[in-house]
Amino acid sequence: MTTSPPRAGTRRGAVPSPLPGGDGAARPGGAAPRQPVRTGVALGLLVAWLVVAAAWHLTQGTADVTVGELWRALTGQGDLDQAAAVVTASRLPRLAAGVLVGCALGASGAALQGIARNPLAAPDTLAVNAGAHLAVTVAAVAGASLGALPGVAVAFAGGLAAAGVVIGLSGGPAASPVRLVLAGSAITLGLASVTQALLVLFPWETQGLFAWGAGSLGQNGMGTVRSIAPVAAAALVGLLVLGRRLDLLQLGDDAARSLGVDVARTRLVGVVLAVLLATCAVAVTGPIGFVGLCAPLLVRLLATWVRPLTRHRVLIPAAAVAGTALVLTADVALRQLFGPVSGVTVPTGVVTSLIGAVALVLLARRARAALEPDTLVTLRSGSALARRAPALLLGAAVLLAVAAVVAGVLLGDSTVLLGDVQNWLAGRASVRLDIVLDSRVPRVAVALLAGACLALAGLLVQAVTRNPLADPGVLGIAHAAGLGAVAVIVAVPGPAFAAVFAGAVLGAVLAGLLVFGATAGSGMASGRLVLVGLGTGAAASAVTTLLLVRTDPWNQNRAITWLGGSTFGAGLPQIVPLVVALAAAGLVVARTHRDLDLVQVDEVTPRVLGVDLPRSRRLHVAVAVLLTAAATAAMGPVAFVGLVAPHAARMVIGRRHRWLVPMTVVLGATLVCVADTVGRTAIAPAQLPAGLVTAVVGTPYFLWLLWRMRATARR
Question: CATH assignment of 375-472+567-714, given 1.10.3470.10, 1.10.760.10, 3.40.50.2000, 1.10.238.10?
Fold first, then answer.
């Protein structure tokens, strides 16, 4: 007895592809008679886009050379030394780098999406670029002088390790799009924090790596491209050989195995080849963001009209062409906007990151929710002691915060004693002690207050959205506040703190309107909220990078340090807004804490009991935005405090906001105060910004929380 091959969506165990057009990825036999014509038209359009972008790219530059002269120089006609020199020494290497990087990232993204059966899989969302960037930065700090191929090897090791962690934590091919992006974003943020710390601590060894880290096509001749191109070509050929097996993976693991595919080996080889392609791109130009996401998605949209494009042996080359066209178009747009001289200094990755941010926001409308709306209340919280004596637990947390404050005041690049502090308070301290404590005490105060503000902001956002992963940093509000503050720092010579604070408030408000306004119609669904927030944060980070590379080196170094979340230079101007914001939030929450108890449950209960749910959401989100802006303006973006502190408080003292709010505030203040102290003492006299320390601490916690929620969902 014979059985016919299984068809997608009909065989038990088969997993329908979440990708556009994926239901026909491995359909045997054929396309309709018009499909070859449509395929030719689609590929022709992509190639035409590439040719136009490449031709325009070659005409841009400072030298006054016509298109005809360039063409004759490229074809070896005539005696045109100037044109030939321009093409071979400047424009052709930049064009070749764009072609290699676009092909590599487009093909890598298409393969990763097919392997993961996930439309949001890409070198960016799997943290490949962040891992590769960190590995190259570590090599630079160690003083290693990497050539082209050793650079690929180092970047490959970092990128593969990061991708393995993300895939494992998100659940592999069973992961939802949102869960994959969350895991990748958490790993990316942690790795980026370490990278930024190295840039701050070793400015001479890592000189030039900041702009390179945003993706720049600038090349010093053809040497690097010529060395790496064979490696990228071999990886691309390997993916094409795997094309048929990748098609069968779209039917589901069981169906693919029944057709003779070694699923585990196929995935392993495919991931290795895709990561190798992405790291080849990083070694040439630095991490250029979101090309690996946007190029395959563009081709898959065409696949809804041209079904053969769903087959990976067609999809991967088409995505490579689209990726190249996208990179060249972004570079052309930059030089057209900023001019032939300034445009060369602006990283191309800024434009591609903006495009990718828009793609994430648009995909949020189609992605399946990864988390049920009531996940927050299903997580375990509280303990027997919390039910009997919550005041005792809160008192213990306050004592811990007091200990953190005392340690923060006493410890630093020089240690002082409690008697010294007493003399300082009484006005009897030495000049040296006055200098030390006059700068240290305000820093401790700002860290304490900023941590309290961020923790309370995270708690409010989590409550009104019922999203356990909501956080001002994850939702992009902190990045937007940072963008507003950086815009003031680089635009105004020696700006007053009031101006920086106003810029941070404006950025946070605009981001809040975008994130929460775009998801209000869906009841602030968790999946959409996170995707829109990540897109907003990516766009804000891209524009921030643009501002930094366009400013002078002094402002750039100052802004990079501030973006790490530093209390350096803190004083009374920073303390006052934090106190005001925290006091205003306290007054609001004191009147609404019972409403928050109901709002976190579901959509129906608060309405039945008389809570105006839309008004409550608007009020508490506005308070959270104000708190985030105040904290960001005071010490820069500080990641994960708004996530870690509310969850830690919830596990200790339960969900009742009467006790949860003060516990969250105390734990958040303690966390940032300890992080600031560690940053000032761990490698004294050098210092680490507190935000980088909290990111290193918060990333593992975020991933543990994601893993825990995945286990809860399975039960």
Answer: 1.10.3470.10
